Amino acid sequence: MCLHGTIATGVETLRARVQYNMERGASEFCSEWTLADTGNNGFVWLGNITNMDGMGAFLSTDEEVKWDKDNGCVYKTYTMSEIS
């Protein structure tokens, strides 16, 4: 999965949130991830999602939607697959 967007409160705020989310259960759906700061509060997050439905449900909770809104986090989600 790829998330491409911006966050008003800064990419390090998002990095801390992702780490928090992994500790509270998102690691059940995501085996590895990386977050790149693209400048001007922009980011690209890449994650190896092992359960897309579970991750979608996790990201759609009221808590996550509120956190995104409170932190000015706006992104588009893309799915990807490995090319052999």
Describe the structure.
The structure is a single chain. It is built from three helices and four strands; from the N terminus they run E-H-E-E-H-H-E. It has 84 residues and is of the alpha+beta class. It has one domain. A hairpin with a 2-residue loop joins strand 2 and strand 3.
Overall number of structural domains: 1
Number of strands: 4
Helix percent band? 25-40%
Could you state the order of secondary-structure elements as H and E? EHEEHHE
Give the count of helical stretches: 3
Distance between the termini: 17 Å
Give the SSE layout:
Layout: E1 2-7, H1 11-23, E2 30-39, E3 42-49, H2 52-59, H3 62-70, E4 73-78
Antiparallel strand pairs: 1-3, 1-4, 2-3
Brief synopsis:
By secondary structure, the protein is α+β, with helices and mostly antiparallel strands. It is built from three helices and four strands.
Keywords:
single chain; 84 residues; alpha+beta; four-stranded antiparallel beta sheet; 3 helices; 4 strands; 36% helix; globular
